[in-house]
Amino acid sequence: RANYVCHHHLERATADGRLPSREDARHLTRIVAFSRASENGDRSMLADVPESATIWPLVTSTRDNCLGADCAFHSDCFVLKARKAALEADVVVVNHHLFFADVMLRDEGLAELLPACNTLILDEAHQLPDTATLFFGEQLSAGQLAELARDAEVAARTGAREVTALPDAASGIGPAIRKLRLALGETPGKIAQRVAADRDGVGDALDELTATLDRLAAELALFAERSEEIANCARRAAEAAAQLARWRAGLMEPADSGATAPANDAAAPGVPWIRWVDVTQAGWQLHASPLSVADVFGKRVAESGRAWIFTSATLAVGRDFSLYQRELGLADAATGCWESPFDYASQALLYVPPDLPQPNSREHTEAVVAAALPVLAASDGRAFLLFTTLRALGVARELLTEAFARDGRDWPLLVQGEGSRSELLARFRELGNAILLGSASFREGVDVPGAALSVVIIDKLPFAPPDDPLLAARLEHLRAEGGNPFFDYQLPQAVIALKQGAGRLIRTETDRGVLMICDPRLTDKPYGKRIWRSLPPMRRTPELADVEAF
Predict the structure, then answer these.
(1) Cα distances (Å, whole numbers) of residue 50 to 27, 44, 342, 357, 429
(2) C-alpha distance from residue 207 to each of 113, 172, 203, 275, 518 (Å)
(3) Distance from chain centroid for Cα 138
(4) SS3 for 468?
(5) In the prediction, which pLDDT does 261 show?
């Protein structure tokens, strides 16, 4: 929904006049003109307003704040027009999130988003286990509650102006959100529920958030009949309060228990649920997720009566699909593996520099940059440098900037975060000799054919961080069932992620390039052979001279 201008919220923002900044006021004028002239309301077609502009949440809708059939603009809704076009089409292309949103709405007995179909083709299907876990779980975020508070204040001003208790109740949400963020600590990251709850002030902050949310839900319920907007906010506040209560209920369970699922449990009975907090720079998300979606997803596939095709360059590890089939409950699926049309032996070279320090050492990133510089000189830029952490990316940026100044290099340096991914990629293609520093988001879904990308440098084998609460719970569950967490889960997942990064290099039959992996474990550890055998069949070398000759 957020990709389309919403007539109702646009009219409300225009009438309300309370905008975050003067810049937003200028943007609003452009969006009003655009909404009148546009046939589809797709905000990506309005290049004059930046993707990150703070006006967008005020003029688009979410599933939470859409008024549905009660909206005065229902017949002109851009989202409904897009859905109508989809219902009349023979082939519909959507992303994974919209597909799962449709699955969840059907489960709840609500209107479907997508048309019925005979065949589903799920491309980039290696992403499905994580996306399914997100959708079959629950999330409550600081942003979601802040949006609720803002909508409740606006609804009160327009539908119950004389009721001062409503905006007062809504205004208490912001301080409660900030209090919890401060109590969670300065460092962003994922924290298991019990670990987070043990931090000073977190319990009090959760109590305050619960009290303010309950108060807002109660006040909104008293005046819900005044307008559709107040009724909508009342429903959202009640749902958010219930979600927060369900999340906190996990703290009442025995420490070794994870088996209590939320009341709206979408997963199979008996499947443990994991709860954690994702702390970001400015906010937080409370998560509750089933440990496995295999039963619930496999059941939907089996009962759908459709043909399902799962396709990706990275579903198998050494032609073995068992990990993927276990994750999604697809034990009986037919599998097939086909070789690439590319001649990797002549088109590509795999370079693993010798004598690099261990990847967890302080000096590793410095050594990666030092090893990369002569390769960049040989390729005249034209490279991706992909890092497993944003900290390493920041260090590399400083080191490369210093080295370019010292050596008189004028290669353009593009850095993740300094523009949207699409902007950075467009500039990278146009410049022809740029160096792009990125993290996991540039490992997949990125296509730069031709000479502009001739080197892909990966700093470490992309093992998931072991302190991820959901990963830790999965590994412990696997260990309890007699499996080997490293070889049965962590290693195959790292191979899949590495193959995605390596796949950025050769995109056509005429591309040529060097894949440089700066992790000594690839050659030093017994499992290293399993990793490089899963990569495309490139010629391998530890010699810089071979890279320069190539």
Answers:
(1) 9, 9, 39, 42, 21
(2) 37, 13, 6, 18, 47
(3) 15
(4) coil
(5) 55
